[in-house]
Amino acid sequence: MKTRWLLPSFLGLTLGACSPAPSTEGTGGVTETGGETSAGGTSPNGTGGALGSGGASNGGGIGSGGAATSGGATAKTGGATSAGGNPGGGVTSAGGSLASGGASGTGGRQGSGGAVGSGGSGDAGVGRDAPPSSDAKAGGGAGSGGAGSGGAKSTGGVSATGGATATGGATGAGGSTTPAGKVFSQCRFHFGTIDSIAINAGASMISQLDFFTPGWMMGTFSQGGVCTESAPGGKLAGLVPVDVTYISANYVKNQNKLCDCNVSGCSGGDLCKYGSQYITQDWAAILAAYTSNSQGFSKCLGGRPIVFEMEPDWYQYTGSSETQPWTAAQAGTNMTALVNALKSSLPNAVFSMDISPWISNNGSGWYPNFDMSLFTFINTSGGGTAADSTKIRTNNSMTWAGVSQVAGKPILADTGYGANGGSAGPDPAWDVAANINARIADGVVSISQYNPANTWGTTISGIRSQLNAPKVCP
Hints:
Helix content: 10-25%
CATH superfamily of the domain at 9-37 and 177-466: Copper homeostasis (CutC) domain
CATH class of the domain at 9-37 and 177-466: Alpha Beta
Strand order of the largest sheet: 1-2-3-4-5-6-7-8
Number of strands: 8
Distance between the termini: 29 Å
Number of helices: 10
């Protein structure tokens, strides 16, 4: 698992997945289901008791994707067209009002109207570890209005009155985001790290970050500290929380004494043999835990944006080694139900689908089984990634560009962890501007360095001006 927000390394547990060990991602170990995580603190280990009982599960309907918002409307009377909407489909701020035409002087020519104020493009961003202001802005900047020229003096007539200055476009109102709106406050490549590392490093690092990752979501709601940290006046105010959900795997591991796929010695076996069987068996309790987190965050988050990276290694439950393997279609139906449970009290939450780099053909047989309209991103999770390669991991065939194209989503990348969830140390390859620009071209929009040096803020500041803008800014 992970440190601090990960599982403490003293639990002696490792990450897992249903592929060869170098490809695994999942998080191991028994963790808490209770106790609220304090800011920057260690989540207390609770007993592996049963989650709050929930109603019987249902299949969960497939949410329909919102239609992309059209660009700015063309002014009907005179004036130039107002600026179009941002590429992420966010709400376009209205262009400035047309200026009144100059009044006609007696026998004179009519003063020309002021130019239409251009609507500023909306903010944007991304992130499994990405940044914004505490309230992501949906609107554009103020449009600039041009002054109308005065009417020429007619022969024997009175000079025409000059056209009035056009009113600038109104600034887009801040507030909570929607899945079709902005996640981050700036359209740029995003950097993030674990909340405790950012807090300990102080303002020099925090000022350069766009998002933070708290402890993984393991059971019923216990992450009030995420709300406290990201609130106005909080230590990480203005940063977007990017929260990994690991409820399904963690619950069945605790209840049935299972190990992660690449770990042996658990009396109940491992997730690659019994994972899908027990998740199906305990589905009602798992759904209840997701609903608990939806309700908990809705009460404390105050409408601020949050990104949920859903269930690492979901693909492993379709493996042939499972006693009751899911079909890919069942995996998709189950994922839709989990997303809808989180959205039940958090309609504006943003979601990301996990990448398992060992899936063949860049996931072309996997992602079409999911309602991808529910997801804004896809993400790596915990196993380490290659910044200087077209492949996500050099020993797997999946490429950054390939999976982004198949899923149709930008990628939130991470640097992963060491053995037993311990520190893998900084990954300097993700600090090289040329590497990041190559990955931006492949569809990557952020990197989470889980174990950066305390000087990472200075490093980010030094390379930002060298980075290209992402291809999309959700």
